[in-house]
């Protein structure tokens, strides 16, 4: 990881064994780039994208996934991509932790390059 201001190395990790151990390489991607990939894939697949939906619950039974909004609307599909942010409803299904927002310095901000 590099400092966003001066580019100096802040820390490093040895990630060589992760692909062998888990079957996939380690990947770092900026959140907005990941969202862009999701958006492009959804458009290509003809998926209807709904904004301003607040997740309240998720379930999976066989090949059917359901997302329920706080307004009580049910959305069904074959998969739910729960990219619902810091206070994720979906996160609680997988991880029993309570992440809390922390202020960061400019040095902690990720660097991105435009192509």
Automatic annotation (TrEMBL):
Annotated region (Disordered), positions in chain: 93-115
Record bears the keyword S-adenosyl-L-methionine: no
Bias-annotated ranges (Low complexity): 105-115
Name of the protein in its database record: FAD-binding domain-containing protein
Keyword entries, A-Z: Monooxygenase, Oxidoreductase
Gene3D superfamilies assigned to the protein according to its UniProt record, in alphabetical order: FAD/NAD(P)-binding domain (3.50.50.60)
